[in-house]
Structure formats: C-alpha cells, structure tokens
Amino acid sequence: MAITDFEGFHHLCRLSGITDNYYDIRGVHHVASFEAKRSLLSSMRISVETDADIHAQIEKISLRGWQTVIPSVLVYPKEEATIQLTLNDTQINRPVVWQVVEENGKTHSGDWLFETHQATEERELNGVRYYRFDAQLPGLGTGYHQLIIKPDEASSTTALLIVTPETCYQPSAFKDGHKVWGISLQLYALRSKRNWGIGDFTDLRDAIKI
C-alpha cells in the first residue's frame, strides 16, 4: 500500500530532524523532495512504506519524549528562560529541586511546585499518568551550562543547557543595509595539528594573523 498521508510523512520528517527546505549561499530556495526525505529516514533506520508505518513511528517518537523528565540537550535564546518538564503522578505536589551551573562556575538553585491543573499536556503510559509543565529558569548569559533536576528524592537527571544570542554577530555595515566585500573562509575547513579536524576559533585567530 502506497503512502497517502503526506502531511503525516512531513511531520515525521520534522520530528526526525529533517528540514523541509533551505536557502543556499546564493539565496536560491531548495525544497527537499519526497524521495530525498524518505532516503534520509531510511538511513536513520526509520522505514516507512505505508501510512500505518508513519503513524507508528510518530507514536514511537512521541512516547520517547514522555519517558524523560527533560531532553539531554536544551537550546534556547538568551531572552527566553522557559523549559518543559515531564513528571509522573508521584512527582506532583512536591518540590522539584533544580540547579544550574554556568560554564564560568556560577550556580543558581531553587525548586518548583507543580499541580495537575497547571499541566500543558498529560498522557497515560503503562498505567502511569504523566504531565508536562512549563518551568521558568533565571536569566543566564550565553554559553554551555549544566542543568540538574531532582524530581524526587530517588532520582536526578542532568541536561546540557545551551543559551544562544538572539542573532549572530553583525558588523555595523550589515546592520545599516550596506554590502561589503571580503574573503570567505569556512571554519570547518581549517586544519591544524591541534584541532579535531573541523577547525575552531583558535585556528581562525591563527589564520587571520597569517
């Protein structure tokens, strides 16, 4: 049976990290074809031959997200400070202790107290009721920080918290709408004896000095 649920197919692709489209360096818009997406799914060992396969894979990915308190990596802009937690019914109405250790060593700590009526979503899995809540974190500087959450006395989970600037650095000429000319250097193409094969900012600094 052929695939007919294309909306579900594209949703599965997005859940799997496959983008729908992109703009190349010349500003040309490219839309990923159905076959290209299907090939990428296959390389990720996600086989979809029918609509039923699509729905089963979406459900599988959805269930995976409900079985962890937080993802192992969280990325959000500096201006935002809200994360999503998933707690089971035994972890409600009691303090959820949290701690953030910034990359400079500075620490923040506190606790949240959630009630079921505050949940944004809920679901039952294997007889256990799970709830999702929005939790507020303190304002943090950009960088790679460690988030530790203890939803109860017996468990603890850790995530890498990546706080990003709202935009990349832009020279004033770009901000004013002017065009500039320069040399293009792809950072990942730099090679040195000390890097991991894909370049880093130390290599960029050395290249600028040459």
Structural class: alpha+beta
What is the residue-mean pLDDT, rounded to a whole number?
90
Kindly, what is the distance between the CA atoms of the first and last residues, rounded to a whole number of angstroms? 61 Å
User: What is the succession of H and E elements?
Assistant: HEEHHEEEEEEEEHH
- In the sheet with the most strands, the strands line up as 3-10-9-5-6
Number of helices: 5
Would you report the number of β strands? 10
Structural Rg = 22 Å
Portion of residues within helices: 10-25%
What sort of overall outline do the alpha carbons produce when their principal axes are compared? Answer: globular
In short:
This protein has helices spanning 6-15, 34-43, 51-66, 172-175, 201-209, and strands at residues 21-23, 29-31, 73-77, 82-88, 96-101, 107-112, 121-125, 128-136, 143-152, 155-164.
Can you describe this structure?
The chain has 210 residues and is an alpha+beta fold. The protein is 23% helix and 30% strand. The chain has helices at residues 6-15, 34-43, 51-66, 172-175, 201-209; strands at 21-23, 29-31, 73-77, 82-88, 96-101, 107-112, 121-125, 128-136, 143-152, 155-164. The strands form three sheets. Strands 3-10-9-5-6 form a five-stranded mixed β-sheet, with no helix packed on it. A hairpin with a 5-residue loop joins strand 5 (96-101) and strand 6 (107-112). Helix 1 packs parallel to helix 3 (51-66). The chain is globular.
